[in-house]
Design goal:
Structural class: mainly alpha
Strand content: under 5%
Number of helices: 11
Number of domains: 1
Largest sheet: none
Order of helices and strands: HHHHHHHHHHH
Number of strands: 0
Low-confidence stretches: 206-211, 213-233
Mean pLDDT: 84
Oligomer: single chain
């Protein structure tokens, strides 16, 4: 019964924590306006950069990654102190996955959230840090080689379940990583279409077509694109 209570709390608590829109909160409190009415209208740090406030963008990035890690770590603490379900990684993996879902589908914003890669890395580092480090290294390598932030994020997401298997992270982590990867690919549909058309902007240059989300810091973890839209909004 106690294990069931922890799992239930992991789902509800993880989702609610993950659905906290740090970008919207940071821009409101920082006097930068309603983030949903700026630029692309997305809630990640890329769009926060369009306000010209790098400090608020950094807060958003840290918040989006940190809430995923916090959900998993708080659930791990509860599981250890109040009776961990078997296997012990099950509850943190569920909480992390719920936080990730909360970021993508936040109840406070009509279920319209971000693309999730910052939260993805936060969850992986908390639940299975070797998997998180390997996925992060993959992101860096692909970003340096191809200079596409979206491709780097998609590659890291695709490889994460494999890393979880190779590092013997456990079935719950493998399933969690696979589920997050599927949602990341779905949320990057516009990026994939632009890649196929040869129109996806590279890191450090280019511009996202009007009306479409870009792929950079906050949604898939990469550096901001250097274009007027990214700084002027």
């Amino acid at each position: 019964m106690l294990g069931t209570w922890i799992i239930g709390a992991a789902v509800v608590g993880g989702y609610l924590l993950g659905s906290i829109p740090f970008g919207v909160i940071a821009t409101r409190l920082g006097g930068a306006g309603d983030l949903r009415q700026i630029g692309s209208g997305s809630i990640g740090a890329t769009n926060v950069l369009r306000t010209g406030r790098r400090d608020l963008a950094a807060i958003t990035l840290i918040g989006d990654g940190g809430k995923g890690a916090a959900a998993a770590l708080l659930t791990l603490w509860a599981a250890v102190h109040f009776g961990a379900p078997t296997p012990a990684v099950l509850a943190p993996a569920i909480a992390g996955g719920a936080a990730f879902a909360g970021h993508i589908f936040p109840v406070w914003l009509g279920f319209k959230g971000g693309k999730g890669v910052a939260t993805f890395f936060g969850v992986l580092l908390a639940v299975a840090w070797p998997v998180g480090l390997a996925a992060g290294a993959s992101w860096i390598l692909i970003a340096l080689l191809l200079r596409y932030s979206s491709v780097a994020g998609l590659t890291a997401a695709l490889l994460a379940p494999l890393y979880a298997f190779l590092f013997h992270a456990g079935t719950p982590v493998i399933v969690m990583a696979a589920g997050m990867a599927v949602l990341i690919f779905i949320r990057h549909e516009s990026n994939i279409r632009r890649l196929l058309r040869g129109e996806e902007p590279k890191i450090g240059g280019g511009q996202t077509p009007p009306g479409e989300d870009d792929s950079a810091i906050g949604h898939n973890g990469g550096p901001p694109l250097k274009s007027p839209r990214d700084v002027g909004g």
